[in-house]
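User: Fold this; C-alpha coordinates only.

Assistant: Input:
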Amino acid sequence: MFKRDPEKAAQRAERRAEKRRQREEWAANRKAEKEALAEWRASHPAEKTLNMACMMRSWPSSKFGETSLGPILGGHAEFVDAGAHKAWTATRLVGGVATGGASLVAGRKNKGAAVINVTFGNGAAQTYNVTPENATLRAANQYVTAFNALAAQLANEAAEQ
Protein backbone atom coordinates (compact mmCIF):
# COMPACT_ATOMS: atom_id res chain seq x y z
CA MET A 1 0.00 0.00 0.00
CA PHE A 2 2.31 2.80 1.23
CA LYS A 3 6.01 2.57 0.94
CA ARG A 4 8.00 4.14 3.74
CA ASP A 5 10.87 6.35 2.91
CA PRO A 6 13.89 4.78 4.65
CA GLU A 7 15.63 8.16 4.80
CA LYS A 8 12.76 9.82 6.70
CA ALA A 9 12.42 6.81 8.98
CA ALA A 10 16.13 7.05 9.82
CA GLN A 11 15.78 10.78 10.53
CA ARG A 12 12.82 10.16 12.85
CA ALA A 13 14.72 7.43 14.65
CA GLU A 14 17.70 9.76 15.00
CA ARG A 15 15.48 12.55 16.44
CA ARG A 16 13.89 10.12 18.90
CA ALA A 17 17.31 8.87 19.98
CA GLU A 18 18.52 12.47 20.46
CA LYS A 19 15.45 13.35 22.53
CA ARG A 20 15.92 10.22 24.63
CA ARG A 21 19.59 11.13 25.19
CA GLN A 22 18.60 14.68 26.19
CA ARG A 23 15.98 13.39 28.64
CA GLU A 24 18.47 10.97 30.20
CA GLU A 25 21.07 13.75 30.46
CA TRP A 26 18.52 16.10 32.02
CA ALA A 27 17.44 13.39 34.49
CA ALA A 28 21.06 12.71 35.47
CA ASN A 29 21.71 16.44 35.95
CA ARG A 30 18.54 16.82 37.99
CA LYS A 31 19.49 13.85 40.18
CA ALA A 32 22.98 15.27 40.75
CA GLU A 33 21.50 18.68 41.60
CA LYS A 34 19.04 17.14 44.07
CA GLU A 35 21.83 15.16 45.74
CA ALA A 36 24.01 18.27 46.00
CA LEU A 37 21.09 20.23 47.49
CA ALA A 38 20.33 17.45 49.98
CA GLU A 39 24.00 17.35 51.01
CA TRP A 40 24.11 21.14 51.38
CA ARG A 41 20.92 21.18 53.43
CA ALA A 42 22.25 18.41 55.66
CA SER A 43 25.13 20.72 56.62
CA HIS A 44 22.80 23.76 56.82
CA PRO A 45 19.71 22.56 58.76
CA ALA A 46 18.44 26.12 59.28
CA GLU A 47 17.56 26.28 55.57
CA LYS A 48 15.24 23.30 55.90
CA THR A 49 13.59 24.91 58.93
CA LEU A 50 13.27 28.23 57.06
CA ASN A 51 11.65 26.54 54.06
CA MET A 52 9.24 24.56 56.23
CA ALA A 53 8.18 27.76 58.03
CA CYS A 54 7.44 29.57 54.76
CA MET A 55 5.32 26.82 53.20
CA MET A 56 1.96 28.19 52.02
CA ARG A 57 3.01 31.75 52.89
CA SER A 58 4.44 34.58 50.82
CA TRP A 59 7.79 34.53 52.61
CA PRO A 60 10.75 33.73 50.35
CA SER A 61 12.16 30.22 50.46
CA SER A 62 15.84 29.44 50.07
CA LYS A 63 17.94 27.18 47.89
CA PHE A 64 21.69 27.02 48.54
CA GLY A 65 21.31 30.15 50.70
CA GLU A 66 19.75 32.18 47.88
CA THR A 67 16.19 33.47 47.75
CA SER A 68 14.30 35.00 44.87
CA LEU A 69 14.97 38.45 46.37
CA GLY A 70 18.65 38.03 47.17
CA PRO A 71 21.24 36.09 49.16
CA ILE A 72 20.80 35.28 52.82
CA LEU A 73 24.51 35.83 53.49
CA GLY A 74 24.80 39.31 54.97
CA GLY A 75 21.07 39.50 55.60
CA HIS A 76 19.03 39.91 58.74
CA ALA A 77 15.40 39.34 59.71
CA GLU A 78 13.32 40.58 62.61
CA PHE A 79 9.86 39.67 63.82
CA VAL A 80 7.83 42.58 65.18
CA ASP A 81 4.79 41.41 67.13
CA ALA A 82 2.76 44.41 68.29
CA GLY A 83 0.19 42.43 70.22
CA ALA A 84 -1.26 40.53 67.26
CA HIS A 85 -4.20 38.36 68.27
CA LYS A 86 -7.79 37.55 67.42
CA ALA A 87 -10.48 38.91 69.73
CA TRP A 88 -14.22 39.27 70.04
CA THR A 89 -15.38 42.86 69.63
CA ALA A 90 -18.38 44.36 71.41
CA THR A 91 -20.13 44.86 68.08
CA ARG A 92 -19.78 41.22 67.11
CA LEU A 93 -20.89 40.00 70.53
CA VAL A 94 -23.98 42.28 70.55
CA GLY A 95 -24.76 41.28 66.96
CA GLY A 96 -24.46 37.62 67.95
CA VAL A 97 -26.93 38.07 70.80
CA ALA A 98 -29.33 40.07 68.61
CA THR A 99 -29.35 37.49 65.83
CA GLY A 100 -29.54 34.53 68.14
CA GLY A 101 -25.94 33.53 67.52
CA ALA A 102 -26.15 33.53 63.72
CA SER A 103 -23.60 36.34 63.31
CA LEU A 104 -21.16 34.69 65.71
CA VAL A 105 -20.22 32.51 62.77
CA ALA A 106 -18.38 35.54 61.40
CA GLY A 107 -15.79 34.90 64.09
CA ARG A 108 -13.30 37.04 65.86
CA LYS A 109 -11.65 40.17 64.53
CA ASN A 110 -7.90 40.57 63.96
CA LYS A 111 -6.36 42.88 66.55
CA GLY A 112 -2.86 44.33 66.73
CA ALA A 113 -0.23 43.76 64.08
CA ALA A 114 2.74 41.54 63.36
CA VAL A 115 5.29 41.88 60.58
CA ILE A 116 8.52 40.30 59.44
CA ASN A 117 11.20 42.74 58.26
CA VAL A 118 13.80 40.99 56.11
CA THR A 119 16.97 42.57 54.75
CA PHE A 120 18.87 40.45 52.23
CA GLY A 121 22.61 40.37 51.59
CA ASN A 122 22.27 42.47 48.43
CA GLY A 123 20.60 45.30 50.37
CA ALA A 124 17.05 44.51 49.29
CA ALA A 125 14.53 44.89 52.09
CA GLN A 126 11.05 43.44 52.33
CA THR A 127 8.28 43.59 54.91
CA TYR A 128 5.68 40.82 55.25
CA ASN A 129 2.43 41.16 57.20
CA VAL A 130 1.63 38.23 59.47
CA THR A 131 -1.93 37.24 60.23
CA PRO A 132 -2.63 37.01 63.98
CA GLU A 133 -3.31 33.29 64.07
CA ASN A 134 -1.28 31.21 66.51
CA ALA A 135 0.13 28.87 63.85
CA THR A 136 1.15 31.77 61.60
CA LEU A 137 2.75 33.69 64.46
CA ARG A 138 4.74 30.59 65.45
CA ALA A 139 5.80 30.03 61.84
CA ALA A 140 6.89 33.68 61.53
CA ASN A 141 9.00 33.43 64.66
CA GLN A 142 10.50 30.16 63.42
CA TYR A 143 11.21 31.71 60.00
CA VAL A 144 13.06 34.69 61.47
CA THR A 145 15.10 32.48 63.83
CA ALA A 146 16.07 30.14 60.99
CA PHE A 147 16.87 33.04 58.62
CA ASN A 148 19.21 34.64 61.15
CA ALA A 149 20.81 31.29 62.04
CA LEU A 150 21.47 30.50 58.38
CA ALA A 151 22.86 34.01 57.78
CA ALA A 152 25.22 33.59 60.74
CA GLN A 153 26.35 30.14 59.59
CA LEU A 154 27.01 31.40 56.06
CA ALA A 155 28.93 34.40 57.46
CA ASN A 156 31.09 32.06 59.57
CA GLU A 157 31.79 29.88 56.54
CA ALA A 158 32.70 32.92 54.46
CA ALA A 159 35.04 34.19 57.22
CA GLU A 160 36.82 30.80 57.36
CA GLN A 161 37.61 30.86 53.65
